[in-house]
Amino acid sequence: MALIRSVYDPFTEFGRFFDDAFLTRFSGGSANANRDVSARQPFRPKVDIHEDANNTVTATFELPGLKKDDVSIQLHNNRLTVSGETNVSSEREEDGFAVRERSFGQFERTLRLAEGTKEEDIKANMQDGLLTITFPKAPAEQAPKRIAVL
């Protein structure tokens, strides 16, 4: 049995609800117009971030249909950026109709890492459409020190 982790983002659903409602209301709308809105929305992979007792942070990105060659991970100025392009299509027969679904577009998600995180401290693994990245937790901030003026 496979364990699937996901993060529910209510703001995505609210945004889609309002887009559908306003597009239908102000464009003379139809049900097809609502589908066009979701087709134009960019692909934004969901991410689940977890910290364990060993001070390790694990970020799991849902990237269904993608292979590790389709994904780029870059570290720059303590920002970890996961980007890529998806082009997934499926066809099936349903109740005598041919159903074709396509999802395509570029995506990018950025995480801020602890100051001084080194590239060799970051580990990435891609399996079954899940990209798992682990890195050390940010060290506790030091208390401010007072410096005497001479």
Question: What features would you describe in this structure?
Answer:
There is one protein chain. β3 and β4 form a beta hairpin. The chain has helices spanning 10-26, 31-40, and strands at residues 47-51, 56-62, 71-76, 79-94, 97-112, 123-127, 130-136. The chain is 18% helix and 41% strand. It has two helices and seven strands. It has a four-stranded antiparallel beta sheet with strand order 1-2-7-6, with no helix packed on it. A three-stranded antiparallel beta sheet has the order 3-4-5, with no helix packed on it. The chain is of the alpha+beta class and 150 residues long. It folds into two domains: 1-41, no CATH class; 45-136, Immunoglobulin-like (Sandwich).
List keywords for this structure.
Immunoglobulin-like; about 150 residues; four-stranded antiparallel sheet; 7 strands; alpha+beta; three-stranded antiparallel sheet; HSP20-like_chaperone; stress response
Could you outline the blueprint of secondary structure elements for this entry?
Layout: H1 10-26, H2 31-40, E1 47-51, E2 56-62, E3 71-76, E4 79-94, E5 97-112, E6 123-127, E7 130-136
Helix pairs in contact: 1-2
CATH class of the largest domain: Mainly Beta
CATH topology of the largest domain: Immunoglobulin-like
Distance between the termini: 67 Å
Main sheet: strands, sense, barrel: 4 strands, antiparallel
SSE sequence, one letter per element: HHEEEEEEE
Give me the count of strands.
7
> What ranges have pLDDT less than 50 throughout 5 or more consecutive residues?
29-40
Spatial arrangement of strands, main beta sheet = 1-2-7-6
> What is the CATH-assigned architecture of the largest domain?
Sandwich
Rg = 21 Å
Total DSSP helices: 2
Domain CS: 42-150
Family: Belongs to the small heat shock protein (HSP20) family.
Protein name: HSP20-like chaperone
Domain SHSP: 38-150
